[in-house]
Design a protein that fits this description.
alpha/beta; 7 strands; seven-stranded mixed beta sheet; 218 residues
């Protein structure tokens, strides 16, 4: 948890602090690792692959753990794997993944420079929204990934990821253009690439978001 000094520093930077859920706070405090570095990552990946807590293991093709640089400054968080991700075992592939790659390239970043993960590690049937119980049971895996990476900046893509991480129901229109904090790490919310494919007029707004992301990473 942040001490008062960190809170004052973030507030001075204009970063809004959202009240974390007690449940999440408890889960973070209970996070432990048997190993360090590669050992911790391998242990966590095995836990995810063997998970059968929420029932999604019955319909998934495979788990989608996450991919990228484990020492990345930037962590991108989406909501859940889709059909392409379920087939390939990697987040943000297909047309949405190609658009995300293009947006990263626009600010001088490559996919291999960052880490990408989802809240859920298994695809919900027919790409439906994650259920609260599924999110609750899968949250500790994401929190452990976050603790291992310790990024400089978190970017949530899409409404569901933003609502979960920031514990809010505000619209994306109101969340965009601001910087929040989660566990002391700055957070920026932007549109999901899949939404931009359906609403191409919003791409200009996302480009502005990514320019802010570049500034925050400097």
């Amino acid at each position: 948890m942040m001490d008062n000094t960190n809170q004052q520093y973030l507030q001075a930077m204009g970063i809004e602090l959202w009240q974390e859920r007690d449940q999440e706070r408890d889960q973070v405090s209970d996070t432990t690792f048997e190993g360090q570095g590669d050992d911790a990552w391998q242990e966590l990946k095995q836990q995810v692959e063997g998970c059968a807590l929420c029932g999604l293991e019955k319909t998934r093709t495979q788990t989608v753990f996450g991919v990228g640089n484990r020492q990345a400054d930037l962590l991108i968080i989406g909501e859940a794997p889709g059909a392409n991700e379920d087939k390939q075992g990697e987040p943000f592939v297909g047309r949405a993944g190609m658009l995300l790659n293009a947006m990263l390239h626009a600010i001088g970043l490559d996919r291999k420079d960052i880490y990408i993960a989802n809240i859920l590690k298994c695809r919900p049937p027919k790409n439906r929204d994650p259920l609260p119980r599924e999110v609750e049971l899968c949250t500790p895996y994401l929190q452990k990934q976050l603790a291992l990476i310790n990024p400089k900046l978190i970017v949530t893509v899409g409404r569901i990821a933003a609502h979960f991480l920031l514990n809010t129901k505000e619209s994306m229109g109101k969340l965009r253009g601001k910087t929040f904090a989660y566990e002391g790490i700055p957070v920026v919310a932007t549109y999901h690439p899949a939404y931009l494919l359906r609403s191409p007029r919003e791409k200009a707004k996302s480009y502005q978001d990514f320019l802010r992301i570049k500034e925050l990473l400097l």
